[in-house]
Amino acid sequence: MNNRKLALMRLMDSRKKFTARELAERFQVSIRTIQRDLNDLQELGFPLYTEVGVNGGYRVLPNRILPPLQLTQHEALGLFMMIEYLENVPDFPYGSIREHLAEEYYSTLPQDVQDLITRMRQHITFLQHHAVQVEAVTTEILGAAVDKREIEFIYHSRQGHKKVQAFPIGIYYDHGYWYMPARRKDRVLLYRVDRMQELVMLGSIDESVPSLQEWLNFKEERESVEVVLQFTDFGARLAGSDVLFKSVEDNEWRGLVPLEEFPFTARKLLSYGPEVKVMEPLELQQQVKEMLERSLKQYNTL
Questions:
Q1: Full-model pTM
Q2: Cβ 45 vs Cβ 91: under 8 Å
Q3: Does residue 302 carry a pLDDT above 90?
Q4: Are 73 and 113 in contact (CB under 8 A)?
Q5: Which H helix or E strand runs over 112?
Q6: Which string of b and e fits 74-94 if b means at least 16 CB within 10 Å?
Q7: Mean pLDDT of the chain
Q8: What sign results for the dihedral spanned by CA atoms 89, 94, 97, 103?
């Protein structure tokens, strides 16, 4: 396949029609040459079809086959490793083909690169805890977020099962779990995706729902208090890979935390054990102490 045909595949857009004349002028070749290229692409299975008439032209199907990547050997090896890692992430959006994607990609590589990958597989693996997904819903959530559409689902929380209606903002993957921030009434709440079931798309659309990036960059408006934490050297290393405390400097972390997030923050800090101490405020100190005391009471009866 020549470079012009690859460029044609990249150019063709399911949202727009192109005439043979427009394509010929863009690539500075004759109309006959462009028509020959388009016929060749159709024979290769590229889902190209023609709309006849005054406003006709060439168009491709939305779920078309995209052009092959032109990668160096190092890039091909890196891509294969990334695909293998993503195969282990549960309920990856649009992941229906993911189970065999690495092997399919592997089969398209030259034999010498395949041999190198076979040897490399003996020296690398990906160890990470992943949540068990009861139902695959990330694709539907992502679609609803893009459309700003309301969804309904059953949520399994510590208080039991409840039916929820909300507008998803997006999804993100953190430490083995998918999370969905969603606007419910006038508040944005965070839901664990692995606790969601029986998801249904509703008819309501709200264009005011922010994108995930807008939400992540949104300035906190809830009443917040400055929290000061002192980490040990080991604790600071642990905090460096924690999305909440990664901004630690000189073993100290400072940040504004909403009052209603204190219970969550206290539980998070308990996971650090003796490697962190709450310096301020006293209210957070007290919540950490109370949680520790409740934990110790479980052993006082032994």
A1: 0.63
A2: no
A3: no
A4: yes
A5: helix 111-120
A6: eebbeebbebbeebebbbbbe
A7: 85
A8: negative
